[in-house]
TrEMBL record:
Location of the TnsA endonuclease N-terminal domain: 76-169
One Pfam family linked to the record: Tn7_TnsA-like_N
InterPro entries: Restrct_endonuc-II-like (IPR011335), TnsA_N (IPR014833), tRNA_endonuc-like_dom_sf (IPR011856)
GO MF assignments: nucleic acid binding
Name of the molecule in the record: Transposase
Domain of life from the UniProt record: Bacteria
Source species of the chain: Zoogloea oleivorans
């Protein structure tokens, strides 16, 4: 739906959003229930294009984005759906009433909110597909009220036999997430295709120039000179190789920066 959604919706407007399919569906046809433009966010909101789904994903915080990037890198991930609506609408209201918990309302209204899960992943398993629901929250935001909301969310997924995980900064692979962020722009950079260079070959050449004493920038400079491309194309090519697991750059041990040394996997 174009434009910013009403921030003081009536029940009729919410039902209209649900009928429009927001927070429902899968793969490229999926539309999140909330977009960055719809919600005032204290964190760093962002959008990222996924190679897995082929669409732009909308995140309300940098922590949610990190969880997305880790899922994007996961070899078992088949689909990522952010801001997934917990429908039917009245089910979480019913759960709240049974527990004696006040259900959230849209601010300034008497309209119950449609609760959402930050990310719903579809994972490929040896015996079929698994759905995993993820709430991505920072520890500082785990107030007693927010824990009540998370309980509603967890019980909703428990009813369906779907695993629900609370991901904080304590149980995220922070170094990998940061390094994937370092190469995030390579996910859909047209310069990779336009260069006519195989990203795996570019990474191999980068590794040939590598020595333990050289910085990332120095190795990159030597590599782009040897392959006659500019630095932005070089970064995109190397990042694409990392995302495709065609690079020996170690993204799990040390945070990558332009000025620091680079670790390679054995």
């Amino acid at each position: 739906m174009a434009g910013t959604k009403s921030r003081r919706p009536t029940p009729a407007i919410v039902r209209q959003w649900i009928r429009a399919g927001l927070g429902q569906g899968e793969a490229q046809a999926y539309q999140p229930f909330m977009y960055v433009r719809d919600v005032p966010s204290e964190g760093t909101s962002s959008m990222v294009r996924s190679r897995i789904t082929g669409r732009n994903h909308s995140y309300l915080s940098s922590h949610e984005l990190k969880v997305h990037l880790l899922a994007e890198y996961g070899s078992a991930t088949l689909d990522i759906r952010e801001q997934f609506a917990l429908l039917p609408w009245d089910e979480t209201q019913s759960i709240a009433a049974q527990l004696g918990i006040r259900h959230p309302f849209f601010p300034g209204t008497s309209t119950p909110t449609v609760l959402t899960t930050d990310l719903l992943l579809t994972l490929e398993r040896p015996d079929g597909m698994e759905l995993v629901a993820i709430s991505a929250k920072l520890k500082k935001d785990l107030t007693s009220r927010n824990l009540e909301k998370l309980l509603l969310e967890r019980l909703y997924w428990n009813r369906r036999g779907i695993r629900w995980i609370l991901v904080t900064e304590d149980n995220i692979h922070a170094i990998r997430a940061g390094n994937l962020m370092f190469f995030e722009t390579a996910l859909n950079d047209e310069r990779v295709t336009e260069s006519g260079i195989n990203p795996a070959e570019f990474s191999r050449r980068f590794e040939e120039h590598w020595t333990p004493s050289l910085s990332f920038n120095k190795i990159m400079s030597m590599t782009i000179d040897s392959m006659s491309v500019d630095v932005h194309t070089g970064h995109a090519l190397l990042g694409t190789a990392v995302w495709s697991r065609d690079s020996k750059i170690d993204i799990d041990t040390k945070k990558l920066t332009h000025r620091d040394k680079v670790h390679l996997k054995a």
